[in-house]
Amino acid sequence: MAEKVGFEPTDPVRSQLISNQSRSASSGTSPIISCSHLNQQVQVAGIISYNSTLNSLETNHNFSGSELPSVRLHFAIIIVMLYAGCSIPAPLLEQIKQKGELLVLTRNSATTYYEDRDGLAGFEYDLVQMFAQELGVKAKFIIPKRFDQTIPMLMRKEAHIAAAGLTVTPNRKTMVKFGPSYQKITQQLVYKQGNRRPKALKDTIGSIFEVVAGSSHEEQLLRQQDQIPELDWVANGELGSEELINLVWEQVLDYTVADSNEMSVNLRFYPELGVAFDLTQPEDLAWAFPHSEDSSLYDAARSFLHRAKLSGKLEQLMERYYGKTINIGFVGTNTFKFHSQNRLPQYIKLFQQAAKATQYDWRLIAAMGYQESHWDPKAISPTGVRGIMMLTQNTAKEVGVEDREDPKQSIMGGARYLRKIAKRLPKRISGEDRLWLSLAAYNIGYGHLEDARIITQRNGKNPDKWEDVQNFLPLLSQEQYYTKTKHGYARGREPVTYVENIRTYYNLLNWLGQRKIQQTEEKPWLPPISSTSAL
What we know:
The chain is mainly α. Helix content is 47%, strand content 9%. It has 23 helices and 14 strands. A hairpin with a 2-residue loop joins β2 (114-116) and β3. α15 crosses α16 (362-373) and α18 (407-424) packs across α19. The radius of gyration is 33 Å and the shape is globular.
């Protein structure tokens, strides 16, 4: 009877089922037949008619009665294994929808994901939120401790997708699967203006040159090293791109490499920096996915991005974060004089009314308005804030403003919001410190201000003094600090410049003798402060 061991059953339907299951197992894919399909075949074809099948086996193979129990047991085991093997997991997209959560790897930066005064923001954040909303799920963002951990975490399937401003490179394509490109960038060599501008990479030899470890910038330099063996740099695993940009601004570093979209944002805050040259031709940015035979999520993302391009939503998002913005940085005295004579007079009464309602000096509110919009009621920023006081939609709603472009509503709303922030500060903070801290929170958000105050205190300084807090606000853009805060990354240098500019504009208003424009005996309670004071 040895020839009967491992016999092939003659039932054609059952043979096909087992064969299909074997093929799917050998190829590493899920079985191509479902349990419900199996049940239908069992019921319709009658292939598991227990008695008839055993009779057929006994007749065709000349089994003796003593062998039938063994055949019955063998047959039962096959059926159990058949049903056990037909369990198929749902496609990944369906699993995500059932759980209601999309896990997204990203990073804190001005171009990806951060918290501003109106909540979470960032190009990648908004784009992912649009995708998650279309799927009917919530996006949960995961921020690796180091940028170079992003792709390894995705490969281990610790998230469904990586939306971190990733450049598509040949090396990365071997590790993850990239979706369609949603933006093109170039890699740029960054230096500080006033220093020698390099014309080629060979001009950086012997300098202090750092890039982010595990970045596409490091990959590019490694390729260039084949032609320039003496090319040298440091791959920094602790700091992000924006932090290295800041170190170039502070002249701690001579050079770094940044993507062009990062530079378009950061040049607003570091106008002294410059781009020496492009290291690459335009490269694609794309979302990344783990390599998998299940392409359901990938296909959904590809379809979403295609529709976002056709509808113009992607272009609108690009314009919001990377389009031209109002110049609210340093301006010349002559420009300020011009606007004071041609724009300010029509709004003085509105600034006075807002100041009276909130107990601020009208010149302070006017200085805020100039810093925000140059007193332009139709002003709008790339991020959607608008009006003279540049209110966000949520802030406008919070202070009862229905039309942000109405000068009266905007000015009153901005003053009320500043007062509301001031009331949240501890009562022990008074005088100018209370004012400057309130202004900083108006710009960056109250949560980030509190993070900076905590950092200030941890470093042995006074969290209630603007003079101390202003020195620690910029640390909110450094990974070693913002990863330990409640509200995460922020462009911490921006509120310092914001407060400094408002103080300067306030003093200029006094210096220009605005009492001649509006006849009043009111004396400003805010003491004059030198426009050259270091903040």
